[in-house]
Structure of Non-structural maintenance of chromosomes element 1 homolog:
Amino acid sequence: NNLMAAQMTNAHRRFLQVLMSNGITEGSEARKLHQHCCETDKVYYAHDKLDDFISTINSHLQPLFMQIRKGTSEDDGRAHYAVVNLAETEVTKMASDYTEIELELFRKTMDLIILSENGFASSTDILNLADQLKTKKMKKKEAEQVLKVFVEDKWLSE
């Protein structure tokens, strides 16, 4: 059986655009956005159908190797949503807002956080990664600045 993806409406497109421009969106904000998009475009809205709504968008993003993912914050246990890139190609590397060395520092930072017992990594440990990067070494002062940008861009929280 071939299953066809549900029709992507303007409500879906608007939701996706806002999510992409926000970076990471807290769960209650995503629910409000879902309602707003449905009401604005006069499409059926059900408060408990956010996951279905997102699944429709994801089925259309699949060929682009992208997906809306739901994650839980270690701080408060609340859900957050973000659009993620599932493929790392030369094109996606070029399309990034960050340099290759900054992305490497980010990946290594994520590894530190994930492997820690408490879901945190100290800034000292992260700064010590700066001179272990494969792309090229990064001065601690430089790494500090990059981490500040990641926090400002809401990819990391202090």
Observations:
- The chain has a mean pLDDT of 83.
- Residues 100-115 form the longest helix (16 residues).
- The longest strand covers residues 66-72.
- The chain has two domains: 10-88, 96-153.
